């Protein structure tokens, strides 16, 4: 054994100043936990900001404005979402999942609560529909519509069993009614959407037609 070898501290290979430093600096191929958490948080911020903008002003805003609203950089925005459609689809999925949870928490006989939640969702969904077709690479795949229909199915069946809604109503009918109740509610001069919704729902549930409404509609249909 040479004198140099004898003096070398145990555990340190030749040429290494500190084993601990070498291990800490090693590239494991995985991002640090803190970086992954930050990435998830930034994605959530972007989705929340886009959802808020969609509700308040609609989807036709500069894409970068969403990054400003979320408090992140443009680079972070584009790392998470390549274009507006990708971001808005993520928002829609998020809001659909929230709607599923909210409907699941309602009592079985809370049909009005179910219709309110669905109508609030349609307020946002229709804004998506007005923005998506303008995107260069947009292709309607029916996934969101199918997901909404699946969410509607159970509460609609319950409402029919209890006689609150007509037996012949379909999920598409309920979505159409919800869109109509959601449209331009501020024109009702109500302080909140809930107030406007309550008045609109009374009109829908009571109906507009009198005793001869069916006869009048049939005659109109025959006339074309």
- Category by helix and strand content: mainly alpha
Largest sheet: none
| Mean of all residue-level pLDDT scores | 77
Range of strand content: under 5%
Output the number of helix runs.
11
Shape: elongated
Alpha-carbon Rg, integer: 28 Å
Instruction: State the distance separating the first and last CA atoms.
Output: 108 Å
Classify the helix fraction into a percent range: 55-70%
- Low-pLDDT runs: 1-26
Strand tally: 0
What is the H-and-E element order? HHHHHHHHHHH
Please give a quick description of this structure.
67% of the residues lie in helices and 0% in strands. By secondary structure, it is mainly α.
Could you walk me through the main structural features you see in this protein, from its secondary elements to its overall organization?
Helix content is 67%, strand content 0%. The protein is elongated. With 224 residues, it is an all-alpha fold. The chain starts with a helix and ends with a helix. Among the domains are: 35-82, Arc Repressor Mutant, subunit A; 91-133 and 143-206, no CATH class. It is built from 11 helices and no strands. Mean pLDDT is 77; it is low at 1-26.
Topology:
Blueprint: H1 3-7, H2 19-24, H3 33-57, H4 63-70, H5 74-80, H6 84-105, H7 111-131, H8 143-161, H9 171-182, H10 193-206, H11 213-223
Helix pairs in contact: 3-4, 3-6, 6-7, 6-8, 7-9, 8-9
